Amino acid sequence: MTGHHPQTRAVHPPVTVPAGSRPLSVPLYQGHLFSFDAADDLAAAFHGPDEAFFYARMANPTVRSLERAVTELEGGAGALATASGMGAISTVLMSLLRGGDHVIAQTTLYGGTFALFQDLAERWGVEVTYVSGDDPAEVRDALRPATRLLYLETVANPTTHVTDVPAFSAAVQGTDVLTVVDNTFAPVLCKPIDHGADIVIHSTTKYLSGHGDVIGGIAVFADPDVYRRVWDHAIDLGSVADPFGAWLTVRGLATMPLRVERQSASALDIARRLAAHPSVTRVHYPGLPDHPQHEVARRLLPDGSGGVLAFEPAGGRDAGRVFSEAVRLISLGPSLGNVATLVMHPASTSHRQMDAAALAAAGIGAATVRLSVGLEHPDDLWSDIDQALAKAT
Ligand SMILES: *Cc1c(COP(=O)(O)O)cnc(C)c1O
């Protein structure tokens, strides 16, 4: 750029592309555009996700690194990273459904997903049949010619219901119905594609990024054609991930298996201590023998049941609320999968509009407290839980 005026040089800085070596960590390509020497090469880039990078709504190298890493993690054929977990869920549903289609979904759904299904039903004419998630025969009974998707969650919020993914996906085998599994609660612990799922979704906001500093999502596809159909629609919806969020998530992914292993072990330890505590009436954790899906969990989650558990302090609604405010080390807040332990009392926060009957129908007690166990030493967590229980009950 020598010979040009300073303001011209200022907008054309030298861009360094490494030659002779390659970066070991994933570089952050925050730029949204790429340039070409030949018009034909730029034209070709429009054709699909595997062409040259040209505009970051279609593809970006940093986002692609995340997509490839999670494709491998889940054993898929391709992945689409999105701006949030809900971005992944809405992109998958809106890409694969049209008015008149039918979906079968389990009742214990993430709240945002349930709201989206209601909207798809009311405004877009998609019919949804809810099944308990306990009996695959319910899925076979609900099947219709118009059924397009079966929507499941590996482990569901807040009472850790576990769905028998292999038995449920087997119930739609031999049909065109695609099985979608939200695996946010069980990364590495469960690989739903190995159990017959066609699409796996994560809110990468949670365990995959892990440090409470990203909102993101990803959908992994077993079939490259389904990936391509969803990608075609995602670029119109514009739900794609920002490179910086994707970069933080790739960074988090490096420690995710170790974090999840530790969080699962600590959650089991805390769940056992809670179950033995005289002021606790019930503990919900798939790793405990009295959990309703303990046998399913032993098969589906042999290496651990994840870092989320719920329990009921004696004393009803007030006990749950007071416990959530009495903790000192643990933080009262939403979300899960963070390095630091989080507590929430659904009846006074996320589910506050529900009366006792509606809460019971959702499997949530008035006292139910949810814990997302982090990486602190379990003895320190237990001291905090023990003192908060003393105040609450
Ligand atoms: C948090 C969460 C979502 C939504 O993810 P966002 O990143 O908040 O959009 C979806 N499913 C499950 C199971 C979740 O926990």
TrEMBL record:
PANTHER family linked: CYSTATHIONINE GAMMA-LYASE-RELATED, TRANS-SULFURATION ENZYME FAMILY MEMBER
Cofactor: pyridoxal 5'-phosphate
Molecular function per GO: cystathionine gamma-lyase activity; homocysteine desulfhydrase activity; methionine gamma-lyase activity; pyridoxal phosphate binding; transaminase activity
Entries under Gene3D superfamilies matching the protein: Aspartate Aminotransferase, domain 1, Type I PLP-dependent aspartate aminotransferase-like (Major domain)
Enzyme Commission number(s) of this protein: 4.4.1.2
Family according to the record: Belongs to the trans-sulfuration enzymes family.
Alphabetical list of InterPro entries matching this protein: Cys/Met-Metab_PyrdxlP-dep_enz, Cys_met_metab_PP, PyrdxlP-dep_Trfase, PyrdxlP-dep_Trfase_major, PyrdxlP-dep_Trfase_small
EC class: lyase
Catalytic activity: L-methionine + H2O = methanethiol + 2-oxobutanoate + NH4(+); L-homocysteine + H2O = 2-oxobutanoate + hydrogen sulfide + NH4(+) + H(+)
Protein name (Swiss-Prot/TrEMBL): homocysteine desulfhydrase
Gene Ontology biological process: cysteine biosynthetic process via cystathionine; transsulfuration
Keywords on record: Aminotransferase, Pyridoxal phosphate, Transferase
Cellular component, GO annotation: cytoplasm
Keyword ATP-binding: no
Modified residues (N6-(pyridoxal phosphate)lysine): 206
Superkingdom of the source species: Bacteria
Keyword flag tRNA processing: no
